[in-house]
Design brief:
By secondary structure, the chain is an alpha/beta fold. The protein has one domain: TIM Barrel (Alpha-Beta Barrel), CATH 3.20.20. Helices cover 48% and strands 14% of the residues. An 8-stranded parallel barrel has the order 1-2-3-4-5-6-7-8, surrounded by 9 helices.
């Protein structure tokens, strides 16, 4: 089922679980992610960023393919433009058939973030397209941004932001960052702030920088109100390791073999992650029915 991200996140918000949003830049990744969700009876979100589309995952190829895979799937699948910062590019994603878009104006002052986000909301909502925004700023792990409390999301400001923009989901900064953390480092999340954000906003909340945050942090973040977790770096690393290991095992392995190996590894990774965040067994096959929630 190809759906708006709103349909997925509202149920996750109501029933206290989270859904993976996995950046997928080719057929193997998209198929691994969606087939893993089917086997786990979980909703799923496929993410693609602007840079990824410009470099490799071109929208004219990826969108029809993902929509086809989603329409054939027996669980809800959304396609989300991740970290949209260019207005024209976001509009193009809406026109290309994305079911959800993220406007990331978090690096701008509050008023400009409100203005840019409101513009996208007005353009997207008439087409039943979900809009995610970010307040506070989830920076880069390499720069140590996860420990900069001045970048964290303020609950009262967030409440005003949501009221002014009408956004459907909010990405919050509570101690994670994008990319890879230093080896052996596990970020410290501000769970008290996260719980207050959930109580204040009473809406779907998003955690960016889910990669490398540690299973304990992820479980607790979900318990405190996170409903969507973006995963990119970890998925890429799983695919890379699988291919490297396969080459070590069989130096004559061809490209098809490597693609299949990477896809299988990513599928298992996604299945395991789904169980951690509690979105497994939420759907009856062939029906848009939540198990245990009439």
């Amino acid at each position: 089922m190809y759906v708006s991200m709103t349909d997925i996140l509202q149920d996750a918000h109501k029933n206290n679980y989270a859904v993976m949003a996995v950046n997928s830049i080719n057929m193997e990744m998209a198929r691994a992610v969606i087939s893993a969700a089917e086997e786990e009876r979980s909703p799923i979100i496929v993410n693609i960023g602007m840079g990824q589309m410009k470099k490799h995952a071109h929208a004219n190829v990826m969108v029809p393919m993902i929509k086809k895979l989603a329409e054939e799937a027996k669980v809800p699948v959304a396609l989300n433009h991740d970290h949209g910062q260019d207005l024209d590019f976001i509009i193009k994603c809406i026109q290309d058939g994305f079911s959800s878009v993220m406007i990331d104006a978090s690096s701008f002052p509050f008023e400009e973030n409100v203005h840019r986000t409101s513009t996208i909301v007005k353009l997207a909502h008439p087409h039943n397209i979900c809009v995610e925004a970010e307040l506070g700023h989830v920076g880069q792990a390499a720069d140590g941004d996860n420990s900069k409390a001045d970048l964290y999301t303020d609950p009262e400001q967030a409440k005003k932001f949501v009221e002014l923009t009408g956004v459907d989901a909010l990405a919050v900064a509570v101690g994670t960052a994008h990319g890879s953390y230093p080896k052996g480092y596990v970020p410290k999340l501000d769970f008290e702030r996260l719980a207050l954000l959930k109580k204040t906003l009473d809406m779907p909340l998003v955690l960016h920088g889910g990669s490398g945050s540690g299973e304990e942090n992820i479980r607790k973040a979900v318990a405190c109100g996170i409903n969507k977790i973006n995963v990119c770096t970890d998925a890429f690393n799983v695919a890379q390791k699988a291919m490297v290991d396969r080459m070590a095992e069989n130096p004559k392995a061809d490209y098809l073999d490597l693609c299949m190996t990477a896809e299988a590894a990513m599928k298992e990774f996604v299945k395991n992650y789904i169980r951690v965040i509690g979105s497994n067994n939420r759907y009856v096959f062939g029906e848009a029915k939540i198990v245990g929630h009439e």
